[in-house]
Amino acid sequence: MRISAKADYAVRAALELAVAADDTSLKAEVIAASQGVPHKFLEGILGDLRRGGLVVSQRGGKGGYRLARPADEITIADVIRVVDGPLVSVRGVRPPELSYRGPAESLLPLWIAVRANVRKILGEVTLAEVAAAELPEGVLDLAEDPEAWTNP
């Protein structure tokens, strides 16, 4: 799995909105400056998040963006899917739509297992947990493995 810059920026923007007060809207400029994200690129991402139902926007002097639902109801997977589509694909195709023959036949269950594990982590971790630095124990266990931090 590869996390695109767009997905990374989207999650970071959503986290900024997660820590804002419930009735506070943040301007794109503020989010961009806080996270070191290109402003124009972020505007497009925030538009995607709005169209995806994860954020709402308000115009005017007190305008800006805020989460459409509580941060504990939005997963990291929700954000990534809105801006990038499926979490795991092979050649742009979702694993269940693939078929293989011969010695490659067992690739399909492998790709399905990869997708299941990505979903298990990103689909269960919420914006609220990340913003509060309270990742689930299973995620922390995986991250504490020294081999997780090295590139083979």
From TrEMBL:
Please, which domain of life does this record's source organism belong to?
Answer: Bacteria
A single GO molecular-function term is: DNA-binding transcription factor activity
Gene3D superfamilies from the entry? Winged helix-like DNA-binding domain superfamily/Winged helix DNA-binding domain
Q: Tell me if Ribonucleoprotein is a UniProt keyword of this record.
A: no
Q: Tell me the first and last residues of the signal peptide.
A: none
A GO CC annotation given for this chain: cytosol
Keywords for this entry? DNA-binding
Query: Which SUPFAM superfamilies does the entry mention?
Result: Winged helix' DNA-binding domain
Q: Which InterPro entries match?
A: TR_Rrf2-type_CS, Tscrpt_reg_Rrf2, WH-like_DNA-bd_sf, WH_DNA-bd_sf
Q: DNA-binding as a keyword? A: yes
Which protein, by its recorded name, is this? Rrf2 family protein
- Species, as recorded: Streptomyces himastatinicus ATCC 53653
Organism lineage reads as:
Bacteria, Bacillati, Actinomycetota, Actinomycetes, Kitasatosporales
